[in-house]
Design goal:
Strand content of chain A: 25-35%
Order of helices and strands of chain A: EEEEHEHEEEEHEHHEHHEEEHHH
Number of strands of chain A: 14
Largest sheet of chain A: 9 strands, mixed
CATH superfamily of chain A: Ribokinase
Structural class of chain A: alpha/beta
Shape of chain A: globular
CATH architecture of chain A: 3-Layer(aba) Sandwich
Number of helices of chain A: 10
Number of domains of chain A: 1
CATH topology of chain A: UDP-N-acetylmuramoyl-L-alanine:D-glutamate ligase
Oligomer: homodimer
CATH class of chain A: Alpha Beta
Chain lengths: 306, 306
């Protein structure tokens, strides 16, 4: 089975949206990425750190879906990272109530020997230096290295971020971040400038307005967000997108534009499931049929003959 | 040649964007609709009113592209409607500096005999009562009646608007207006409620985030906005969309979902050309080759195989 290695946060989240609220549930980027990737044929391997309060029942959520957690360090002297947030009525904006880094504060990732020979490496949104450390520990370069990041690192660690971008093939950011990173307002111009940093592909995420894929040889592809009956919690939609995307590429073993386009659709499908229930709940229990049906809906929603 | 009748405003606009400004240029909804429709095989026939200052050179812009203006009344005692506005840096928002209705204030549309037997009737965003009057003057119902409207009529003439919606097949509004008209935040729910008023199709325009098409039997289609090198003036993009859309349907003579999907693509293509220059400038000088190339770009941007 194809091998996807994922580095990033593993945490507890407490989420409130107009449709309800949760207690502490499993969160951070890696569960969304790993669970989503599994539906597209990849075996996920997580690199992260948790505290003593991350008990077996949480690991069980991941193990039940075949996710390898050998690379998750348990820091017995600290608690697991914790994030709490409240979404506005339109759910495109949220307010962070608290972020407790806890064990994540001194996280120094170690890539286990069994994680070597990965097909794809997916780096969730964490300190650029940690992303670099994981890349440097891969003895053989994966076929594709994908990284997510955010404006926070552009503001606080731009040089490190630029160095990390030079080491990867695909960057995923949102439209505002693309504008900030490039200094260009028009997205096509922003994309060209960012691709010139050495990327093969750039993905600009636009939330419920879909995602744009740009290739370094001029290709442009757009995937809309699926139109859903119900959206109860957008937390993790971007990470689920990254999981569907990187999982699809890992399982296909190819990185040409046609494959990467389909991978964007896989990401969009994963993101759509994520939003329908709180946290990772929906992503824990999907079937192959669920995925197939939604890919078909996606095709119906975008295909036309002129 | 297939016949498209267009009712709506014909005006002068003075536009300022971050990329420049114009003096009084030909504006209002109907020039954008009529010029765009022409590129998809329809002959446009405008119903509107202008003042004594709307001299031959302005009519010439329309006549040069084969547009019939028999139904444009010249009110010699008044001036042409005038709108001036300034766009913000991100161009998704604009401030109206002035709207002078002038001759439009007492506009009472008359449909000329030569406009009868229309294939499609496209009603630009004007008073719902005027839209009704035009529909009522069509002796034979066109194959498709399309209407545009805006939040202003929801606020000031909701009953008239609801009555007009009952008389048409397709409504085009933006996402915020769809939410206002339905009282539903989730767009799929909003669309279902609005379609239930008796429409065949609803189009929700999302500006540079594309357009959604909903059919009354559950079909959903999404067309992204094309990714452009340069956007200098978004004025009229929605009207150009309506023109490409209604012109395409008129020339095909069919109103099934597959045809209407392709018509949304035609609308998106027309809207993309509109934004590249000020006012209707770009729409005055396109070639068949320009249109074909852009439809091809649109296909490349959305097609994938999973």
């Amino acid at each position: 089975m194809s091998k996807l290695v994922i580095g990033g946060s593993l945490a507890f989240d407490a989420i409130e949206t107009p449709f309800g609220k949760t207690d502490k549930i499993i969160g951070g980027a890696t569960p969304y990425i790993a669970l989503s990737a599994g539906y597209f044929g990849a075996k996920s391997h997580i690199i992260s750190v948790v505290g003593s309060d991350f008990t077996d029942s949480y690991f069980e959520i991941l193990h039940k879906r075949g996710i390898d957690t050998t690379g998750v360090k348990v820091d017995k002297d600290n608690k697991t990272m914790f994030w709490a947030g409240v979404y506005n009525k339109d759910m495109n904006q949220r307010t962070t109530l608290t972020t407790e880094l806890n064990c994540f504060e001194k996280f120094s990732p170690v890539v286990p020997e069994s994680y070597q020979e990965a097909d794809v490496l997916m780096l969730g949104n964490i300190t650029p230096k940690i992303q670099q450390s994981i890349i440097n520990q891969m003895k053989k370069r994966p076929k594709l290295i994908v990284m997510d990041t955010m404006n926070f690192w552009m503001d606080t660690a731009l040089n490190d971020l630029e160095d990390t971008i030079k080491m990867v093939d695909v960057l995923t950011i949102n439209d505002e971040e693309a504008r900030q990173l490039s200094g260009e307002f028009i997205l096509l111009k922003a994309a060209k400038k960012i691709l010139a940093k050495g990327l093969k592909y750039l993905i600009i995420k636009k939330g419920d307005n879909g995602a744009l894929l740009f290739s370094n040889d001029g290709g442009v592809f757009f995937a809309p967000a699926l139109i859903l009956d119900s959206v109860v919690d957008p937390t993790g939609a971007g990470d689920s997108f990254a999981g569907g995307f990187s999982g699809y590429i890992a399982s296909k073993g190819k990185t040409d534009f046609e494959t990467v386009k389909a991978a964007v659709v896989a990401g969009s499908v994963a993101g759509s499931f994520c939003c329908e229930k709180f946290g990772t709940e929906n992503l824990q229990n999907l079937t192959e049929k669920d995925i197939k049906e939604r890919v078909k809906r996606f095709e119906e929603m975008t295909k036309f003959s002129f």
